Amino acid sequence: MSAAHRPDSKSHFLAQRGALHPHPERVQDVLFRGGIFFDARDLIQVRYEMVRRHRIDGQSVPQVARSFGVSRQSLYLLIQTFRDLGLPGLFPRKRGPKAAHKCTDEVLTFVRARQSPTSALTSDETLIAIREHLGIRLHRRTLERQLAALGKKLRRSNRPSEARPPHPAT
Length: 170
Known about the structure:
mainly alpha
């Protein structure tokens, strides 16, 4: 890796914590162009300054968005999140569902009630039973992950892909 592309210690530090700005080159704000305090690579600092510019300095959303290289919609969402959560709202969060929303305790209780040491239900049969009795369609991996987290495993059904012999070594 060349010296020009090697991340410095601050970039490494920010990246480890999920706070490295993915596009620091888009930040065109005057404060971030020079000096040592304001760093366009620091996502939290950039986000804070965007919100401050709008709320304290009274700059318009389009003006702030243009200056920091973000869309107006992103800035409006950031302002709302800051209003709702305060400073922690500026920290990056994982998007999307945080847990299996269909594979509830009710579903897991239903599955556990149908499993026994002598039961020979496959995951396909279990998924069909869940759909018929509870009216919930689950993906096989969703159910397997939840059961694995509980220390339970379903016997996988024989799928055509599993029945194929392995590729010969070349």
